[in-house]
Amino acid sequence: MISLIIRRLFYLVIVLVIITFLTYVVFFAGNPNDLAARFAGRDAGTAEIRDAAIRLGLNHGFWYQYWHYLDGLLHGNFGLDFQNAVPINSELARAIPVTASLVLGAVVLWLLIGIPIGIMSATHPRTLRDRGGTVFALTFLSMPPFVLGLMFLLVFYFYLTQAGITWFPAAGYVAPSQSIGQWADHLILPWLSLALVQAAVYTRLIRGSLLDVLGEDYIRTARAKGLSRRTVVFKHGVRAALTPVITQLGIDVGTLLAGAFVIERVFGLTGLGQLALNAIGNDDLPVVAAVVVLAAVFIVVMNTIVDILYAVLDPRVRLT
Amino acid sequence: MSTSTQGDLAVDATDAQVLLEVDDVVKHFPVRSGALIDRTHAQVRAVDGVSFSLKVGETLGLVGESGCGKSTLARLITALHPVTSGHVRFRGQDITALNRRQMRPIRKSVQMVFQDPYGSLNPRRRVGSILSDPFSVHEKMSRAEVKRQVQELMARVGLSPEHFNRFPSEFSGGQRQRIGIARALALRPDLIVCDEPVSALDVSIQAQIINLLEDLQDEFMLTYVFIAHDLSVVRHVSDRIAVMYLGKLVETGPVEEIYSNSRHPYTASLLSAVPVADQAFRTARRERVILTGDVPSPVNPPSGCRFHPRCPKAQAICATEEPPLEHKTGDPIGHLTACHFPVNPGETLANASRDAVPAPEAAVGATEGVDQ
Amino acid sequence: MSLLRAAVELEVIEEQNPDAKGTEQAYEGRTPWRLAWGRLKKDRVAMVSLGFIVLLFLVAIFAPLLTALIGHGPNTQYTTSGLSLSGIPVAPGHNGFLLGTDDQGRDVLSRIIYGSRISLEVGVGATAVALVLGLVMGLVSGYYGGWIDSILARFMDILLSFPILLFAIAIVARFGPSLDLLIFVIAMFSWPYIGRLVRGQVIALREREFVEAARALGSSDLRIMFIEIAPNLIALAVIYATLLIPINIVTEATLSFLGLGVLPPTASWGNMIAEAQTGDLFTVAWWFLVFPCVALVLTTLAFNLLGDGLRDALDPRHGRSNITPTKRVKRSARSSGREKDNSEGKRA
Ligand SMILES: Nc1ncnc2c1ncn2[C@@H]1O[C@H](COP(=O)(O)OP(=O)(O)OP(=O)(O)O)[C@@H](O)[C@H]1O
Ligand SMILES: [Mg+2]
Questions:
Q1: Percent of chain B, pLDDT > 70?
Q2: Is residue C2 part of a domain?
Q3: How is domain A88-319 classified at the architecture level of CATH?
Q4: Which one of B37, B189, B231, C88 is least enclosed by Cβ atoms within 10 Å?
Q5: What are the φ and ψ backbone dihedral angles of B110, each rounded to 5 degrees?
Q6: pLDDT, tens digit, for every residue of A30-49?
Q7: The complex's ipTM?
Q8: Which residue is closest to A283 within chain C, CA to CA?
Q9: In Å, how far is A123's CA from the nearest CA of chain C?
């Protein structure tokens, strides 16, 4: 168990080094004048560009620059942005809570929707309820989240508001410290847009794995011992059926984050995705790089955690 | 064991016509099944020291129950698996030491007909294409020439040449095995290893395929290793028989010797299981001896003689000392048996258990000990 | 995205013996493809989807002809007939605009027709590249095994755990958006879907007797990989390419929506949707948002349903199902566990 964790962590470090290196190469390697010109602005002269190159440290060798960049990252310092020469850290600090709220709420929501429907489908296979679950899954599986979000905006925000029902605000983000109610209210449509598509996947996942588990001998034995159906399904069945859910969650971290970035654009939320997209518009490479590295690190770390969690839950993995 | 086989080899080595020598070959597969930590230590001892030799034009019938290592031995002879130890010599050349490129000319001379006529033909390729492989790989021929050769080949094994554009799924089992035979035959090999070529076929078709193989042998001077899991099939085609049990040869000899004068209790019990159709060999002494218990696992074979837990004649020494494959007094030259207590002519094996084993409980106990 | 993500975990498709062993009967015309087509023809949902997709291809190919028939070019701004006096887009069915106009007075129908070109170009183009890459890498990884496989399989896993959007953001930030770059990015980061499936299949196929037979003949590794094994991957490739196309179409639409893909004025469904959203224009003219969305969703659905039907037709062992995601996700559950076990075992 310990050796597995150590192996995973070692692997994590290697992947992180590769990620930062690749990010650095994609964003900053190449012609220093090109970079310096971007930093100096559109109508800068050659002298200004040369100044900029020195300020950015572009006169040093590649490895020195990379090391410098890595050193900054290790100290949690993403450097200055090109646009306003302000610390990227403070921009990230403003954006992270928005994205985090979006992602966390969506995960909770999709599990709250997906798991019960999946359990219902599995405990009543081939009934009307099961069919209902299937139709639900099929409907949302072919729907890209941003399309769903826009449809929500159109129907729930626009048409309802037109009809005089102002349940949902259109856009924006309210920090939970200001008002929890407002925070949730502003996020409910983004959460739903992100969650429904994934909930559809999880419905099918739970249904399948629970049907498998319920068919196994020990469940039948438990039933035969006189335990109630409810107890058996929830105490034994669901617990076992959740293992694949955790695996899938690990796989879906990246999808989720990408979905969140897109949904931010749909609902005008100023999270990490918006930060990066705006920075692309402004040719502000370090900001984009910061978001990409942050997202990548998050994905890799989450995958590692899920792997370890999986090993804890599944003793077969632990033994190897 | 090796001493006696060396004697056997010495006899054959003087003969210039020896085509194949199998010398103490061993094949162990590492077991990678369980999640147990010591899993790397376990090994399937699929073939565990087998020796024999084969002359040009001869047919060796290799017989044994399912899982005893026949297919593995076949793959060692055709160099599809590397050996764990031992040597396989073809025309005196040790093919276990050859690399891929050096192996190429030998591939033309040693071919194999596979056990499963369904699995051995690529389901996504047309038969004409499958049969042109040998020519594409080894010969430089024009397309038209290849096609002519393929159609000739198809005709020779009894298929309609105009069917060369069909997929394997469009043929019956027997026809597919003919395709497999045609492929093996294409490059006019010297040795063909036939791995249970008929066991997946209907009984009515088996004879046709065996007749085809015999005709081809006469026509092309082929040498066969003919594998089967029961003795009735190989009798018609073989010159010599080798009986295999759990990775080892237990008895080998000329075909009539084995059928009329089998010395190993395992051979005797296999013979007693031969269907009634083979009346000639169901002599009075061959009461049906039913082998009790399953074949033990090749991962952990029984000590001493591997057959002892199931043997009606087993005694204490059988569990401790492994009997060498050797010539038994009174047998003709070339009849070798690996048994401490060979069956005597006229002995009724069905009664042997009562005669030879004083305490039946001991035998039962031994069986249980191995099953665990 | 999730559909194929789940499908990546799918177990290997095994070749079927249509009859029991030893059946002494020959079946003329029982070729693998003819059988599959026979099964597909009976699948009404799949056939309707196929019809829709064929139609979509025709529309894309004959886009100039169609828009000429309609009389409205995709980028022409009909400032008099296409916009009301106050500059509001014309509603569907008015002034000869079947699906209305957008904020610049352009014909939404013509733009959707031209948008289908982009969608199919990127969807099919990127999938084709991904397919070739995935087949080759999966073949090499699965066939050779050992350390080559460990590295390639790990590499594919890592690529799969990152969303394409992240790569697109990074690459577009540096090089600027363009159609070619879009196809490149999508292809480069979607091949592991195919690669992993192919690898699994190859690992099973290389143990088959017909591969041994080829080796017994002295066939080279290359020959075995591409002449023996590859033809057996076609069914798998057809199925999962059909499922990857809609994913790539959605990726294109998403990236174009974010301004990372096809740039206006070239019409793509994604940037049409983005334009409809700018300044909440869709609140005045819903058609300008809804119709490209409908085109996108219908296309995705059609490819998914066809892919599902193809799997049933080419892989009859799993029997008929009328439910797209069920089996796929269900099996993903079991085999993802198994995958983990295997990779664990190998690394240990
Ligand atoms: N590639 C392999 N890896 C591990 N074990 C193997 C392998 N091939 C064969 N074995 C094992 O070696 C033993 C002998 O198998 P083999 O196929 O040679 O038997 P056989 O006599 O041909 O049986 P059958 O009559 O069923 O064909 C079996 O226990 C089998 O499980
Ligand atoms: Mg065999």
A1: 81
A2: no
A3: Orthogonal Bundle (1.10)
A4: B37
A5: -115, 115
A6: 666 666 666 666 666 777 77
A7: 0.83
A8: C173
A9: 15
